[in-house]
Amino acid sequence: MLSRLSVLTLTSLGCHAAQGQTLHYTGEWRLIYAGRVHLHIGADSGRLALETAGLAERLYPVRSTYTVNYHQQLCAASSVEDYRQGRKYREIRVTYGKEKATRVELDQAKSGTQVGSNEVPVPACVHDVLGALEQLRRQPRAEPGTLWRVPVSDGKRTANVEVRALDREKIRTAAGEYQTTRYEAMLFNGVIFRRSARLFIWLTDDARRLPVQIRVQMPFYLGTVTLQLGKEEQG
């Protein structure tokens, strides 16, 4: 257990979401260029677009667009993921109600045939993964050892996900050099996602709280994926 432990409620607001902000990332897999990710977050919606490139495109081509709508305080209302991997083309729709989330998966390569559905209980205010990241950004800089618990759901699972502040680090990306705090979000290993992995997020220590680096550390035979901030745009 970390030496300092506190539980905080994620409710404070920041100005960057009200204005709207787009963050552009480059991705590396096994230390080679792997693709691009574009993340937009606003007051009541978010959007993430991913496309592989280079060797990753040849081995594992992916195109994915994810959009989400929020109620107040970034409580998830609905989301749609359009996911293409080779010939596989799926659309996943999630609707978040007051007590449950409903998830429907459609095979768009087969004229929108439904191939899966399920419901899971959720609290009155639950976050998707993007909303949980934005809530973390809206907190002041944390001391190492601080712990948050955030209610998160993807429509298949719901959990109070732990996020820990680990240590201070200086990070250099194409966008500049930043003083950051590194966090670990416990999303994997069956909590929300089944894959065995660890998720680390580096947020700047200034008022912008920029996620300048995101890393998914998987078993050695799968390798590590790292996203680094290349450009920030307002609006």
Overview of this protein structure:
- By secondary structure, this protein is mainly β.
- It has one domain (7-234): outer membrane lipoprotein receptor (LolB), chain A (Clam).
- Helices cover 9% and strands 56% of the residues.
- The protein has three helices and 15 strands.
- The chain has helices at residues 15-19, 54-59, 129-137; strands at residues 7-8, 21-29, 32-41, 45-52, 62-70, 76-85, 88-96, 100-107, 113-121, 147-153, 158-173, 176-185, 198-204, 211-217, 224-234.
- A 15-stranded mixed beta sheet has the order 1-10-11-12-13-14-15-2-3-4-5-6-7-8-9.
- A hairpin with a 2-residue loop joins strand 2 (21-29) and strand 3 (32-41).
- The radius of gyration is 17 Å and the shape is globular.
- Mean pLDDT is 88; it is low at 1-18.
- CA-based shape: globular
- In total, the number of strands is 15
The CATH class is identified as Mainly Beta
Distance from first to last alpha carbon: 40 Å
Number of helices: 3
Average pLDDT number: 88
Unreliable spans? 1-18
Keywords:
single chain; 235 residues; mainly beta; outer membrane lipoprotein receptor (LolB), chain A; 3 helices; 15 strands; disordered N terminus
List the helices and strands and how they pair.
Blueprint: E1 7-8, H1 15-19, E2 21-29, E3 32-41, E4 45-52, H2 54-59, E5 62-70, E6 76-85, E7 88-96, E8 100-107, E9 113-121, H3 129-137, E10 147-153, E11 158-173, E12 176-185, E13 198-204, E14 211-217, E15 224-234
